[in-house]
Specification:
six-stranded mixed beta sheet, 25% strand, 39% helix, alpha/beta, 16 strands, elongated, 12 helices
Length: 431
């Protein structure tokens, strides 16, 4: 009897010990900064920004995200790379599988074949068969990376994305992870939208980096490198930090959802909330881009939905209308909400580096645009005798002044309007 009781007691201790070890297991996340080393990924050179490279942007985001996660005792973070090097796709996925990771996140930057892209925004991919031609082109672009490494050539030699047998095996291998991948992907895209990014949604696609990961896995395209607004945002420290924060919050929400489904409810008692620190100003100024159009709108035009503090900025023949300006995150987010409430559903924040001088080109003030030439007695030409006239597509444009920072252009515009000329536009000239 005593022997039997001892066995029961020992069994109880073993179960308790096993449960404690299981409960204390850290949630392991593998963070993959796409491309690296000799594989620069998508890239584009801008006069004001310099060379924006995918490999640099992805590493910046991943390192910031990793630092956030490492401060949380519930997580164990593994990086596929922390420097500018190129691990093969085989090495990346093998690292995740050997580590028995709970989640695999690969960060990338998007691009379109055209250098002047109208496509913009974020999208998150989970494993699945190709759904349409546009997404398939994204898959092909990512798959091209495999030919950079001999090990990948050997590993992927027998994989044929068009083979029915390969697709069936692929579905079976990933089916148990797909649901969770969709959950984390949705959290990520929702968070991007909340901070003013344009989300292209969560999509299924045949990407090698996902199909070989034996765990919930997502590939995040954080924006388009050949879209100027996206490139400006992603190449900035603040843009990378915001992107990392969006992903971090999604991971936190995802782990909570996984824990609830697993029945883990023994969370520690909440500590008293610390006093909220005073908000710190951001490095960049943020304006809310409302719309881009070839049409010039005057002040109080119904198209501007009654919003004040509008800054029109003309670039390459297009007028961009920005609302508000702030270097405080809370005000920026409030301005985005105001813009969307006014009907600009795709409005988003664009960062401007304060007092940044243009390396090429300049800013000038567009005084007027008319079908007929202004007479020499025109009040505009009488007031601004140095105004320059150009003719484009049958329209006469009159401009005044030449400055090299946006702040100086805003100041000049106010001086012009103080002299009685209203509805002017700041024009950015690329020369």
């Amino acid at each position: 009897m005593r022997n039997k009781n001892f066995k029961i007691f020992f069994s109880f201790l073993f179960i308790l010990f096993t449960s404690l070890v299981s409960a204390q297991k850290k949630f392991t996340i593998v963070l993959d900064a796409g491309h690296g080393g000799g594989d620069h990924g998508a890239n584009r050179n801008y006069p004001e920004l310099g060379l924006v490279e995918e490999k640099t942007v992805t590493l910046g985001i991943v390192l910031k995200l990793g630092q956030m996660l490492e401060k949380n005792k519930d997580f164990k973070v593994i990086y596929t790379r922390k420097i500018d090097e190129y691990p093969s796709l085989t090495d990346r996925t093998n690292l995740a599988n050997r580590s028995k990771a709970d989640l695999f996140i690969s960060v990338h930057v998007n691009a379109t074949p055209s250098r002047t892209a109208t496509a913009r925004g974020t999208e998150t991919f989970v494993q699945g068969p190709a759904q349409n031609r546009e997404n398939l082109e994204v898959a092909k672009q990512e798959n091209n990376v495999i030919y950079l490494d001999e090990k990948d050539k050997e590993t992927f030699a027998s994989y044929d994305a068009s083979s029915p047998e390969s697709l069936i095996a692929l579905k079976m291998q990933q089916s148990k992870y797909l649901e969770n991948s969709l959950i984390i992907g949705t959290f990520v895209e929702n968070n991007f939208e909340k901070t003013g990014r344009f989300s292209r949604g969560v999509k299924q696609e045949n990407l090698h980096i996902l199909r070989r990961s034996a765990m919930p896995s997502i590939l995040i395209e954080t924006g388009f490198v050949n879209n100027y607004e996206d490139a400006t945002f992603l190449s900035s420290e603040q843009g990378q930090m915001t992107t990392a924060e969006n992903i971090y919050k999604a991971i936190i929400d995802y782990k909570k959802a996984v824990d609830r489904r697993a029945g883990i409810t023994n969370t520690p008692a909440k500590k008293s909330e610390p006093v909220k620190a005073a908000e710190v100003a951001l490095k960049n100024d943020f304006r809310i881009l409302l719309l881009t159009t070839p049409v010039k709108y005057d002040d109080n035009d119904p198209a501007l939905r009654g919003l004040n503090y509008i800054l029109p900025l003309k670039e390459n023949g297009l007028y961009k209308y920005y609302y508000g300006v702030t270097n405080m995150a809370s005000v920026r987010d409030s301005n985005i909400k105001t813009a969307k409430d006014a009907g600009f559903k795709n409005a988003y924040a664009v960062g401007f580096m304060p007092n940044q001088k243009l390396s090429t080109g300049y800013y000038t003030i567009e005084l007027a645009s008319t079908k007929d030439k202004l007479s020499s007695n025109s009040p505009i030409l009488q007031t601004f005798k140095d105004a320059e006239r150009t003719k484009t597509n049958g329209i006469f444009y009159y401009t005044y002044g030449k400055v090299y920072s946006l702040e100086d252009a805003v100041k000049l515009q106010k001086e012009v309007e103080a002299k009685g000329v209203k509805n002017t536009v700041i024009q950015k000239v690329f020369k």
